[in-house]
Amino acid sequence: MKKIIIAALTFIIYANAYSQVLAPVKWSYGAKKVDNSTAIIFIKATIDNGWHIYSQTVKDGGPVKTTLTFTPADGYSLLGITAEPKPITHYEKAFDMDVQYFEKSVVFQQKVKLASNQQLVKGSIQFMACDSKQCLPPDDVDFTILVK
User: Fold this and answer.
1) Above 70 in pLDDT, residue 44?
2) pLDDT at residue 63 is higher than 70
3) What DSSP element (H or E) covers 98?
4) Which of 38, 84, 107, 134 could be joined to 34 by an S-S link, Cβ 3.0–4.6 Å?
5) Are 50 and 132 in contact (CB under 8 A)?
6) Number of C-alpha atoms within 13 angstroms, CB side, residue 109?
7) What is the pLDDT, as a whole number, of residue 20?
8) CB–CB of 91/100 below 8 Å?
9) What stretch of H or E contains 123?
10) 6 burial class (0-12, 13-18, 19+ CB within 10 angstroms)?
11) pLDDT at 68 over 90
């Protein structure tokens, strides 16, 4: 019995020591003032080689699209929709449809109107990362960007 317990504990220790949490997407943020009352928020995804994330424009029935949600606040208001560059479009058998995605990196841009000179813009990003063999569960990342 002791041998079984020792073997099980040894397996658990080695499995934990060698398991890795996959995090193929790193997020960074910035802001640039256009004038005293307007700024552009930049949200950048840096994506590991072989991985991709999906566009905001993926149709229903496909993979989880990237969604940027800005927390409503008195200090700023959104001007228009969040812009993104032209994505790669590719047919995926798993979804039986064309999907749009980004590899390597992508910068999303959101124009905001500021109520005063300095503001905190907060929100969250939901996204799903996939490679040629697997898709990770959708992930949510919160952000706070100081606009000054």
Assistant:
1) yes
2) yes
3) strand 97-103
4) 38
5) yes
6) 11
7) 62
8) no
9) strand 119-127
10) exposed
11) yes
Beta strand spans in 15-96 (E): 25-35, 38-47, 52-54, 67-70, 76-83, 88-92
Q: How far apart are CA 121 and CA 95, in angstroms?
A: 35
* Residues recorded for the chain: 148
* pTM, two decimal places: 0.84
CA angle 59, 64, 70 (to 5 degrees): 95
Burial of 106 (0-12, 13-18, 19+ CB in 10 A): buried
Residues 6+ apart with CB under 8 A from 105: 44, 45, 46, 47
Q: CB-based contacts of 9: which residues, under 8 Å, 6+ apart?
A: none
pLDDT given at position 3: 42
Residue 8, pLDDT > 70, answer: no
Between CA 122 and CA 110 the distance in angstroms is: 12
Half-sphere exposure of 117 (CA within 13 A, CB side): 0
